[in-house]
Design a protein that fits this description.
The complex is a heterodimer of chains A (about 325) and B (about 270).
Chain A (H helix, E strand, L loop, with lengths): L2 H8 L5 E3 L7 H9 L5 E8 L1 H8 L3 E9 L7 H8 L3 E4 L2 H13 L3 E4 L26 E4 L6 E6 L5 E9 L5 E2 L7 H7 L2 E9 L2 H5 L5 E3 L6 E4 L17 H7 L6 H12 L5 H12 L1 H5 L32
Parallel strand pairs in A: 1-2, 1-8, 2-3, 3-4, 8-10, 10-12
Antiparallel strand pairs in A: 5-7, 6-7, 8-9, 9-11
Chain B lengths: L6 H12 L4 E5 L3 H11 L5 E4 L4 E4 L21 E4 L2 H10 L5 E4 L3 E2 L5 E2 L2 E4 L2 E5 L6 H7 L2 E5 L25 H5 L8 E3 L3 E5 L12 E6 L5 H6 L6 E8 L5 H10 L12
Helix pairs in contact in B: 1-2, 2-7
The chains are: A alpha/beta (about 325), B alpha/beta (about 270).
Chain lengths: ~325, ~270
């Protein structure tokens, strides 16, 4: 499926969208902006510049997260948070991961022992400027089993999760490896996971190594074949972070003019991710792109075997009589 | 011994020296990653470096060209004993009680070792919003001990953090227990001026639970540390002087930060 079709069919105005911090689906993010979705909510333990793009584009007006990279420096994102254009609720990395896990498990809430003793729980901060109206953020209680104090967090079930992964087969089985933040639970919690992948492979490749599948095809809404789909974010085994691109092209996306300039050139100025990469090569040269391809490999290729005995024996052979 | 170093460099070197020799160390964002990598390669090869993103027991190659640039750097996949996700790292590992030392930085710290990574000023009308806590909160709540790394400035060392994202001893003896948290410590702080402990023999149950200056950097006097501290600082009866960085420590530190991602030359 093309990225255009995936976003057109599966991302609707008003959807909550997991955007994540690892496995960043930049290509899908740009497509959402091209298709001018509105009133989206960004979710993720930490949300990076891809969320800043969605805020600046007017696609997203709400965020629940533990870290908002766009708020790190004063600028349009903090202004939007201050004047109510961007509603927010502050959580933490662990909280969002557990809330996604609860959503995936189909339970209404999940307890944590984080947040105890912090100002997050202060009564005076439970309603705050820019907060989500009428939202119950958490509840402190004593465990009915041993009396231990815990904080109950509500389950998160995003409408959509956009993620970038290594590979998928024709059935939509998705494989992803490496440290992965809260991505795995987002695949399972989201109603409509949309996954861009570096490679489409045959069923045999997936089924020969099923331990690396993070979500089976029947739980995936759409798979888009999209090499370089995480650029300029890093993607293990393929390419590292393109810090030069961040510094040169994206350092001012938190200001209106800087955002407009970036979007005009790299989002609206291209048709899709393949076109974006062509433009990158035309602009900076092939060498610039190749410079941060994954090239280390001090470790032997992992030799993963799922072999088993082809014939099971349920009875021991009779011993010969002495 | 080299005398050509910045205070920020010495802060990282001393933070590396303060790491335990063994045990599980969870590195927060920023300087903890640099200090942890230095410790692993130099003073403490036996520690297991872990991140909230999901790297477990990362063992950098001896000739590694840089420390991870942030905790989601792909280099953390290379040589880890296990890679998993945030529920593994902040759930099973941390909340399950397996992290011996959490290493943290933040924008502010107060006399009880509480940290603030969320906003400056009143949360309801902030002077400045920051990125947010990430995993800082749960590491401060749940690690058995915390080592904080923080440049010594009066605007950072405040009597009371503007927003307590990450509890130390909260507001004194017994406060952690009242809040529902386990005892913690002995916690430590390394700044650009010296090293601090806390006045509590039992992880927050008794004692004043306030920060205590225990050692100073070369040519640094306790009354100078007081100037850059926003409350009346407790000072140990015998303040030690910290040895300057060795040439080996400095060379390795600089090799690990080749792009000055962590330490801007000339700052501090």
């Amino acid at each position: 499926m093309s990225e255009h079709e995936a976003v057109e069919r599966f991302v609707e105005d008003g959807d909550s969208v997991y955007v994540g911090y690892t496995s960043v689906a930049y290509g899908l993010t740009h497509e959402i902006i091209r298709q001018k979705r509105r009133n989206l909510e960004c979710l993720g333990g930490s949300v990076g510049p891809q969320a800043t793009l969605l805020f600046m584009a007017g696609c997203s007006n709400r965020v629940r997260s533990g870290y908002i990279a766009g708020a790190l420096r004063p600028g349009a994102v903090t202004e939007m948070m201050n004047d109510g254009r961007l509603q927010f609720e502050d959580y933490s990395n662990q909280a969002i991961a557990l809330m996604l896990m609860a959503g995936a498990l189909g339970i209404p809430f999940i307890p944590t022992r984080s947040f105890l003793g912090t100002d997050y729980l202060s009564p005076e901060y439970q309603e705050h400027p820019g907060g989500i109206p009428g939202y119950k953020k958490w509840e402190v209680m004593d465990s009915p089993f041993d009396g231990q104090k815990v904080v109950l967090l509500p389950a998160l079930k995003p409408d959509v999760a956009i993620l970038h992964a290594h590979r998928a087969d024709e059935d939509g089985n998705v494989q992803l490896w490496g440290h992965m933040g809260d991505a795995k639970w987002a695949f399972w919690a989201a109603k409509k996971p949309i996954v861009s992948v570096e490679e489409i492979v045959s069923r045999d490749v997936i089924r020969a190594d099923p331990g690396r599948t993070v979500v089976p095809g029947f739980r995936v809404a759409a798979v888009v074949h999209m090499p370089w789909g995480a650029h300029p974010s890093p993607f293990v085994g393929h390419y590292d972070a393109d810090y030069a691109f961040h510094a040169k092209e994206m350092s001012h996306i938190g200001q209106a003019e800087g955002y407009e300039a970036f979007a005009a050139e790299w989002i609206h100025g291209v048709e899709d991710r393949a076109d974006y990469i062509r433009k990158y090569v035309d602009t900076f040269g092939k060498d610039a792109l190749d410079a941060f391809r994954a090239d280390t490999g001090p470790w032997p290729e992992p030799d993963v075997s799922y072999a088993h005995a082809s014939h099971l024996r349920f009875r021991m052979p009779e011993k010969d009589a002495p | 011994m080299s005398d050509d170093y910045t205070l920020a460099e010495l802060m990282c070197v001393v933070a590396a020296r303060e790491m335990p020799q063994t045990g599980v160390v969870m590195l927060g964002m920023g300087l903890p990653v640099l200090a942890g990598t230095l410790a692993k390669l130099m003073h403490a090869p036996g520690i297991s470096l872990c991140t909230e993103v999901g790297a477990f027991d990362w063992a950098p190659a001896p000739d590694v060209t840089r420390a991870p640039v942030g905790i989601h750097d792909l280099i953390l996949n290379d040589g880890s004993a296990m890679v998993g996700d945030m529920v593994d790292a902040l759930g099973s590992l941390l909340m399950g009680g397996n992290v011996d030392v959490g290493v943290l930085g933040a924008a502010q710290m107060d006399r009880f070792g509480n940290l603030n990574a969320l906003c400056l000023g009143d949360y309801l009308n902030p002077e400045r919003r920051l990125g947010g806590t990430g995993g800082n909160t749960e590491i401060a709540c749940l690690a058995k001990r915390v080592l904080s790394i923080m440049p010594q400035e009066r605007r950072r060392f405040v009597p009371r953090v503007d927003f307590n994202t990450s509890p130390g001893y909260i507001d004194g003896p017994g406060a952690r227990r009242t809040a529902g948290l386990a005892p913690q410590g002995p916690n430590r702080v390394v700044s650009t001026f010296g090293v601090f402990g806390f006045d509590t023999p039992d992880g927050g149950e008794s004692g004043s639970c306030e920060m205590v200056l225990e050692a100073v950097f070369p040519n640094m006097a306790p009354d100078v540390v007081q100037i850059e501290t926003g409350w009346e600082l407790r000072v140990s009866d015998n303040v030690a002087e910290i040895a300057p960085p060795t040439d080996e420590e400095l060379a390795l530190l600089r090799r690990l930060d080749p792009h000055h991602f962590y330490l801007t030359p000339g700052r501090y």
